[in-house]
Write a structure and sequence with these properties.
The chain is α/β, with parallel strands linked by helices. Among the domains are: 69-231, ANL, N-terminal domain (Rossmann fold), CATH 3.40.50.12780; 397-463, Luciferase, domain 3, CATH 2.30.38.10; 467-566, 2-Layer Sandwich (GMP Synthetase, Chain A, domain 3), CATH 3.30.300.30. Helices cover 25% and strands 25% of the residues. The two termini are 47 Å apart.
């Protein structure tokens, strides 16, 4: 069995042994040569702790605010590596995390890649069926889990044979598990050394694994390598990128289980930023209070988060001093221009829109208020016309739009095509899961339909597949349809996205019943709940006599959405559900 690399072409075996790389390439006398130093995460993740050891990592917990220094965080990460090494974790082994954003999760971000193992971040929002598949497909040997998430994993205890050890991160809740082999996180690292000899391995070795459910069928694994993440980390810190520096206090609200927290934990660790983490406390008022108290300068989250924060600030205009906050990074879905203007006009806070995917590690493009020197002369209205687009390419990447014959389309802002991307941190294949239709001649096929304007701004026009993006997470309409149609008494089902003021989009199911069937809306939702997480369930089930089809017999979802719009359909209020 081989572990495929996902940002280069050659495979290497799971038993891959770290090789020493200290040699200097010798050429003709008098010729300048460079050391062959591999790009390894262990070279940069401890940098911030060395340069600014007394800066803080702050986590909001049930018991109050937890604080520890960058030096302590790196030392504890080293203890984690020692403990896992002692347990028998080797280079290439997958070690999973099922955790919130907190200081222990950050320690895993630093320890596991640096020791040559692979950090597999499990999405806590997935249902049990997907979780079971992902854990078994990745062959995770160890899972680190926050104790309040134990009930979500409990149904899988006897279904994940590769998992040998469960490391429980206690927060004083005393929640138990029936898993046979468990240990407390603090017991695991207690008495371990605070020094570790980080291995000199090939820079193309894997260091992170994320699964995406952004397409139909089973979730697909994307393996990040040391080289790809090293380059992404440095690029993310660039002035014309997210402009992160050691002077920043970073509050990563985007989950660390979602595309590696958009890379922020790595970049902040490299630079020596103060890191502020909300754990499971996502209430907008608590987030605002945390950012004010810790003097956060930059934060990252999906549009629904910033809509909630805006509501808190509008309701309490004099309560919170957010003058330290200079920019908000927004991804997952496009933020409303009105919201971006409100933050700028009211508080002088720049909202930086980003586009990317799990497969792009994740940043592909960024849209800044003023992105070019020539834009200094633009009016604010013109600047916000640009910031509403998905942005300009990160250095080192290439994008192109193609027609059905794979011919590139003009960058005129009008021509539409399938969006493809390539570069040193872009996925080139899925982990042990051939998907040839997702790759073309060295390009990643993103699944988005887009335009590129004459200034090279990316503009997402539509999705090539009818996925539903709710709160920054993908929901597969086809998977829902297949599950509903499997129900006795149902002949056909179509699931389409409908606009939602908070979650961006929500799924609605149109269902044709067998004549005389007594299947109800409640019965269908209960049936879906057996396979899907609550947030993936349709907001509504509409019983119809026919569903529009295309000329080739496929469900015509474009027509369905248009008909719902013409009928002024409104989603039901589910606050009481």
């Amino acid at each position: 069995m081989t572990l495929r690399k996902h940002f280069i072409m050659e495979p290497f075996p799971l038993s891959y042994a770290p090789r020493q790389i200290h040699d200097i390439h010798h050429t003709e006398p008098g010729t300048m040569t460079m050391q062959k130093t591999p790009l390894l995460m262990s070279r940069i993740l401890g940098r911030g702790a060395k340069l600014d050891p007394n800066e803080e990592v702050v986590t909001l917990l049930e018991t109050g605010t937890h604080r520890q220094t960058l030096k302590t965080t790196w030392e504890r990460a080293t203890q984690v590596a020692c403990a896992l090494d002692e347990y028998g974790i080797k280079v290439g082994d997958r070690v999973a995390s099922f955790m919130w954003n907190n200081y222990r999760h950050l320690e895993l971000y630093q320890a596991i890649p640096s020791m040559g193992a692979v950090l597999h971040t499990l999405n806590i929002r997935l249902g049990p069926v997907d979780l079971e598949y992902i854990i078994n497909h990745a062959e995770d040997r160890v899972i680190f889990i926050d104790e309040d998430l134990l009930p979500l994993l409990e149904p899988l205890i006897d279904k994940i044979p590769s998992v040998e050890l469960l490391v429980v991160c206690r927060h004083g809740q005393n929640i138990e598990t029936s898993f046979a082999n468990t240990i407390d996180y603090e017991d695991l690292i207690r008495d371990q050394q605070k020094k570790y000899s980080w291995p000199e391995i090939d820079e193309h070795s894997p260091m992170g694994l994320c699964y995406t459910s952004g397409t139909t069928g089973k979730p697909k694994g994307v393996m990040y390598t040391h080289r790809s993440t090293y380059l992404h980390t440095i690029t993310q810190a660039m002035t014309d990128s997210m402009s992160l520096s050691a002077l920043d206090a970073v509050c990563g609200i985007v989950p660390m289980f979602h595309a590696m927290g958009w890379g922020l934990p790595f970049t902040a660790s490299m630079l020596g930023c103060k890191q502020v983490m909300p754990h499971r406390f996502m209430d907008p008022a608590k987030l605002v209070a945390l950012m004010v108290e810790e003097e956060v300068t930059i934060s990252a989250g999906v549009p629904t988060i910033w809509q909630g924060v805006r509501a808190v600030l509008e309701a309490n205009p004099k309560k919170y001093d957010i003058t330290k906050l200079s920019r908000l990074t927004c991804g997952g879905s496009a933020p409303p221009v009105s919201m971006m203007r409100w933050y700028w006009d009211t508080h002088g806070i720049e909202m930086v829109q980003g586009w990317g995917m799990t497969e792009t590690n994740p940043l592909g493009t960024l849209s800044r208020k003023v992105a070019k020197r020539s834009h200094l002369q633009l009016t604010e209205d013109q600047q916000f016309e640009n910031i509403a687009k998905q942005g300009l390419l990160m250095p080192g990447l290439e994008i192109e739009i193609f027609d059905e014959s794979w011919q590139p389309q003009p960058h005129d802002g009008e021509s539409v095509g399938e969006l493809l991307i390539r570069g040193p941190w872009i996925c080139s294949e899925y982990f042990n899961d051939p998907q040839p239709d997702k790759f073309h001649d060295g390009w990643l096929v993103t699944g988005d339909v887009a335009k590129i304007d004459p200034e090279e701004y990316l503009i997402i026009a539509d999705r090539s597949k009818d996925l539903i993006k709710s709160g920054g997470e993908w929901i597969s309409s086809v998977d829902l349809e297949n599950h509903i149609v499997a129900l006795e008494g149902v002949t056909q089902a179509a699931v389409v996205a409908q606009p939602h003021p908070k979650w961006d989009e929500r799924p609605v199911a149109l269902v044709i019943l067998v004549a005389g069937s007594n299947v109800t809306k409640e019965f269908i939702l209960e049936h879906c709940a057996s396979l899907f997480a609550k947030w993936q369930l349709p907001d509504d089930v509409i019983f119809v006599k026919e569903i529009p089809l295309t000329s080739t017999g496929k469900i015509d979802k474009k027509t369905i959405r248009a008909e719902l719009a013409s009928e002024h359909y409104k989603l039901p209020d589910l606050r009481a559900r």
